[in-house]
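pasting for ref
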Amino acid sequence: MLKFPGLASQSVAVFSFGKTFHATGWKVGYAVAAEPLTKEIRKAHQFITFSVNTPVQLALAEFMSNPANYLHLGEFFQQKRNFFLEQIRKSSFEPLPCSGSYFQLLSYKSISDKSDIAMAEWLTKEHKLASIPVSVFYEGNVQDHLLRFCFAKEEETLREAGRILNQL
């Protein structure tokens, strides 16, 4: 939206340093918008968030000072996705095309009739493999038999997830 002047003047783009730069857990975000919009955002922000811890702010500033730290994140995440998909190639799960994300949707229609919440709970309790049921993002009882898996993990973790998924 920010690339198009007509939309940029009316839009607020909200980002997470942790998600964007593969440093989850830092819980620091930022918003980009036209000045009249950020003026209003700052009015609310001053009462919502007192401050972000200083060490994390300094670490992010240092990280951002070197473009090599973030200019190749697209390729980095594509390599992770490809590695994860290779690990589950022999499974009965069907990957859906997913772009611009570090999550991979997998259909388990050919494996189970369980709801996605029940399937996610079962995978977690019985196999120690966490996933997100897609229905939690929708209103109503949407059941597409889809689970969301994060592939922004160490290769050893992805290899183990593949081992588990291939056995189901």
